[in-house]
Design a protein that fits this description.
By secondary structure, the chain is mainly α. The protein is 53% helix and 1% strand. It has 3 domains: 22-66; 92-272, no CATH class; 300-589, no CATH class. Helix 8 packs antiparallel against helix 9 (158-178), helix 10 runs parallel beside helix 12 (244-267) and helix 17 (420-438) packs across helix 19. The radius of gyration is 31 Å and the shape is globular. The N and C termini lie far apart (82 Å). One of its GO terms (cellular component) is nucleus. Residues 54-68 have a biased composition (Basic and acidic residues).
Length: 624
C-alpha cells in the first residue's frame, strides 16, 4: 500500500499580516487613489466610479486572479495572449451590394480631398481605405457620415447617396434609442450638420429647412458629449498628458461649440453647449492632429483656431445685441448699442490682423473670409435696424390725431444719420460676401459647407431691404443687382440636380429681387406698418389717416415685417409679394427695369416647380 499523503497544515494569515502595506498591490493603490480623487456630486458620478473600480478589478494580473485565468485560458490559447484574427466586419451596405470596396475607397478619398479641409474633425485613420474593416467595426457612424457627404454632390452617385443616407438614419435612430454613443458618433453628427444630406421631398423655395435638421444633429452630438464627459477636456490638469484619445475628445468638443453657436444663432435658438472656459484659451497646440505633416500642406490647426476665435466673437455679439427681442428693442431705442458695436469692431480688427493674412489654399481662405464678412454684417446691421425702428417710432409719435407727414425716402440722406458709419460698413460687408462667393468656381462651391451658401442668402436679403429703404443710390443698386444675378447663376451651376439646395435658394433670391417696391416713406418701412405692393412709379400719399395706418399695420407684405436673419419669414415674404397665376410665371424672370438702377433680366428658363408631396409610403421618411 502506498502511504497516504499527509495533509499540510492550513496557514492562516493574521489580518495585519494579510493586508500589510508592504504586501499591497499596485491595483490596491490605484483604487485608493481613485477613491481619494473622485468627487461624487450626483448618482451618475457614483455609478461611473463603480464602473471604473470594476474595470480595474478585471484588469488584475493572472497571479492575483487564478480563477479567471483558468476560465479564460481558451480565449488566449493562440499566440502570446493575443486574440486570433477574426473575420472582417461585414458593413451592411457592402453586404447588400449597394456599395463595393472600390466605391467605398473612392468615396473616402474624395471626402478627404474635397470636404475634410473645411471641417477637419474626422479621425484620419477612418479615411484610410486600408483600414476599412477596422473602421467599419469601430467607427461605423463616422464611416457612414463620410460616405453620405462624399456622394451627395455627384450626379452619378445619387443612388449611392440615398442608400448611405438611409443607413445613416438607421444608425442615428439606434444611437438615440440606446442612449449611448462615442466620440466617432459625435464627429459623424457634426459632419452631417455641415453638409446636410439631400432631402428629396422638400419645398421648391429654400426657407432654411436644412438648418432645422442640422440643429437637431448638433444637439444630439452635444448630449452625447456630455454623457461621455468630453466637455471637461477644455479644462487642463497637470496629469493630462498628450494622448491621442484626449486630443481627439478635445477637438470634438471644440467642434461641438463651434457648430452649436453657429446653428443656434442662425435659428435664433438658445445655446446648448458650454463654451471654452475663461482660463482655457485653446490654441493650435491643443489640436496636434490638425498640424501639417508636410510643409506644403495647409495648417488645419491654425484655420480651426481662427474659426474658433471668430465663433467666440459671434457668440458674444449675439449675447449682447441679439439675446432677446425685448433687449434688442431696448438697445434700438436707448442707443447704448453704439458702444457695443464699436467694441466689437475693434475685436474684429484684432482678429483680422491676426488671421487675415493666414496662408492657405484659396477655397479655405474664401471660407474663412466669408465667415468673417458675415460676422461684420451681423454686427453692423444692428445699427441699420435700430435706425429704421426709431424712424417708425418717431412717425407714430408724431401722429397723435392720426395725421402725420412722412418723408419720401427714410435713408435718402444716410450720411446725416448718427449710425451712418455702421450702415455703410454693413453694406460693404454684404457686398464683400457676394463678391467672394461669385469669385469661386461652382465645382468648389459644391463641396463647401451649407453655412457658407446661406451667408450669401442673408447678405442678399439685407441688401434688398437696404435698397427698398433708400440706403443705396442708383449706381450702387445697379452693381448690387448684377452681383445678385451672378450669385443666382453660381447657385444654379453648383446644384447637381433639380431642387437641390442651390437651386432652391436661387429661386428665393430671384423672387425676392424680382420686383422690389418703390422707395417709400417711413410708414412703409416700419416694423409692422409697411405697404409693399405699390407699383413702380406710383407715389405714396404724403399724409396718412388712421384708417390707412391701421391697414398698413395689418399688411403682411411689409418690408420691415420680416428679419433678414429669418429665412422662413423671408421665404413667406418673397412668395407673397410675387404670388402670380401660373400663366404669368414668366414675370418672375425679370427685375423691375423701371426702378432706379434697373439691370436687365434673369434667364428665361426660370420656373417654379410644384411643391413636392410628402410620400408616406417611403420606408425611410426624411433622410438625414
Amino acid at each position: 500500500m502506498h502511504p497516504q499523503p499527509q495533509p499540510q497544515p492550513q496557514q492562516h494569515l493574521a489580518p495585519e499580516q494579510g493586508y500589510a502595506s508592504s504586501d499591497r498591490t499596485p491595483h490596491d493603490d490605484a483604487v485608493d487613489d481613485t477613491v481619494a480623487a473622485t468627487d461624487l456630486q450626483n448618482p451618475s458620478d457614483a455609478l461611473d466610479f463603480l464602473a471604473q473600480v470594476a474595470e480595474r478589478d478585471a484588469a488584475r494580473s493572472p497571479g492575483e486572479r487564478p480563477h479567471e485565468q483558468t476560465a479564460g485560458a481558451g480565449a488566449h490559447a493562440h499566440g502570446n495572449g493575443h486574440i486570433p484574427s477574426q473575420q472582417p466586419t461585414i458593413y451592411p451596405l457592402l453586404q447588400t451590394g449597394q456599395l463595393s470596396v472600390e466605391m467605398v475607397s473612392t468615396l473616402l478619398l474624395r471626402y478627404h480631398d474635397k470636404y475634410h479641409p473645411y471641417f477637419p474633425i474626422a479621425n484620419v485613420d477612418a479615411m484610410t481605405p486600408q483600414r476599412l474593416w477596422t473602421t467599419a467595426s469601430d467607427q461605423k457612424h463616422l464611416l457612414t457620415a463620410m460616405l453620405t457627404v462624399a456622394s451627395r454632390d455627384v450626379q452619378d452617385w445619387q443612388q449611392t447617396h440615398e442608400a448611405c443616407s438611409a443607413h445613416m438614419q438607421d444608425l442615428i435612430a439606434n444611437l438615440v434609442y440606446a442612449g449611448t454613443g462615442s466620440v466617432e458618433a459625435i464627429e459623424a453628427l457634426l459632419i452631417l450638420s455641415e453638409w446636410p444630406p439631400r432631402q428629396p421631398r422638400c419645398p421648391s423655395i429654400g426657407r432654411g429647412e436644412e438648418d432645422a435638421a442640422a440643429w437637431m444633429l448638433v444637439g444630439t452630438a452635444i448630449r452625447i458629449g456630455y454623457l461621455l464627459g468630453i466637455d471637461r477636456t477644455g479644462f487642463r490638469t497637470a496629469n493630462d498628458g498628450n494622448t491621442d484619445g484626449l486630443d481627439r475628445k478635445r477637438l470634438a468638443w471644440a467642434a461641438c461649440y463651434i457648430s452649436d453657436r453657429q446653428i443656434s444663432v442662425r435659428l435664433g435658438k438658445a445655446f446648448w453647449s458650454r463654451g471654452p472656459g475663461p482660463m482655457t484659451a485653446l490654441g493650435t497646440r491643443d489640436f496636434p492632429s490638425l498640424k501639417p505633416k508636410q510643409p506644403w500642406q495647409d495648417d488645419y490647426a491654425a484655420i480651426f483656431q481662427a474659426n474658433l476665435d471668430l465663433t467666440q466673437l459671434f457668440s458674444n455679439a449675439h449675447d449682447v445685441l441679439y439675446a432677446t427681442k425685448d433687449r434688442s428693442q431696448q438697445l434700438h431705442m436707448g442707443g447704448e448699442y453704439v458702444k457695443y458695436i464699436d467694441d466689437f469692431r475693434v475685436s474684429l480688427r484684432i482678429w483680422h490682423s491676426t488671421w487675415g493674412m493666414l496662408s492657405c489654399s484659396a477655397p479655405l481662405k474664401a471660407s474663412v473670409t466669408l465667415c468673417y464678412e458675415y460676422l461684420r454684417l451681423y454686427i453692423n446691421a444692428f445699427a441699420y435696424q435700430a435706425t429704421l425702428n426709431r424712424l417708425v417710432a418717431k412717425a407714430q409719435a408724431a401722429s397723435p390725431n392720426g395725421v402725420f407727414a412722412t418723408s419720401i425716402a427714410p435713408f435718402a440722406d444716410i450720411a446725416s444719420t448718427p449710425d451712418a458709419r455702421f450702415i455703410y460698413e454693413a453694406i460693404d460687408a454684404a457686398t464683400s460676401i457676394l463678391s467672394v462667393f461669385n469669385s469661386l468656381d461652382p465645382l468648389i462651391l459644391r463641396t463647401m459647407p451649407l453655412k457658407l451658401w446661406l451667408c450669401v442668402i442673408y447678405s442678399g436679403t439685407f441688401l434688398y431691404k437696404a435698397r427698398c429703404t433708400g440706403v443705396m443710390g442708383a449706381e450702387q443698386t445697379g452693381r448690387v443687382k448684377q452681383m445678385i444675378h451672378d450669385a443666382v447663376d453660381k447657385l444654379q451651376k453648383a446644384s447637381t440636380c433639380a431642387n437641390d439646395v442651390g437651386d432652391r435658394y436661387s429661386r428665393l433670391l430671384r423672387l425676392l429681387w424680382r420686383k422690389p417696391p418703390s422707395r417709400g416713406d417711413v410708414s412703409r418701412t416700419g416694423e409692422s406698418a409697411t405697404q409693399h405692393a405699390y407699383a413702380a412709379g406710383t407715389s405714396m400719399p404724403q399724409q396718412l389717416g388712421p384708417g390707412d395706418m391701421q391697414q398698413q399695420m395689418q399688411n403682411p407684405a411689409s418690408i420691415n415685417a420680416f428679419s433678414w436673419l429669418d429665412l422662413g419669414a423671408v421665404g413667406d415674404f418673397a412668395t407673397t409679394n410675387n404670388s402670380l397665376p401660373s400663366e404669368s410665371l414668366d414675370g418672375l424672370d425679370r427685375f423691375d427695369d423701371s426702378s432706379n438702377g434697373g439691370f436687365g433680366s434673369f434667364d428665361q428658363g426660370f420656373t417654379i416647380p410644384l411643391q413636392y408631396v410628402w410620400n408616406t409610403a417611403s420606408p425611410y421618411g426624411v433622410m438625414f
